[in-house]
Task: structure prediction
Amino acid sequence: MRVLAIDPALRKTGFAVIERRGDDDFHVRTYGIIRNPPKLLQSGCLVNIRGGLDEVIRRHEPEACAVESVIYVQSYKTAITMGAARGAAIIAAATHGLPIYEYAPKRVKQAVVGRGAASKEQVAFMIRALLKLDETPSPDAADALAVGMAHFYAGAGSDRPTSPPPGQV
Result:
C-alpha cells in the first residue's frame, strides 16, 4: 500500500509518499515541502499547494491520502487559513480519486513517539529512526511522514475514510 501523507499549512505544506511492503517494511518514495513566499496572496498559495500535490500524486501514484486534521488554535483567522490549506490538499487528493483519512495531531505524535505532547524535534528524530533515513527531515516534512506512519499504524485505512473517492458517497 502506498499513501500520500500531508501536513497542510499555507506557507509550508509538508508531504510524503510512503509505501508499506510488509509488516515493518516501509519505503519512503519522496518527501518535502511545498513552500509559498510570504508576499504571495492566499489564493496563489492554495493554487500552489494543489498543483504541487497534483504533481506528487501523478508521479508516485498513491492509493490513499492521510491528512493531519485541524488543530485547536486561538485565532479564528489562523483556523480559517489552515482550513483553506487543508481544503486545497484534500481537493488535490479527491480529484485523483484517493480516499482521504484524517488524523488528529495528538494521535499522530502518539503513533510515532509514544506520547501525544511530543515536540517537533522528537517527531523528526523518531521518524528518522523508524524510516531509517540518512538525515533528519525538516519539521514540516517530518510531520507529513509521521501522518503517513500514523495511517499505517492505524491499520492502513481499515477505518472508513473521512472523504470517500468521488462517486462513492
Remarks:
- The mean pLDDT is 90.
- The chain has five helices and five strands.
- The beta strands are 2-7, 12-22, 25-35, 64-68, 100-103.
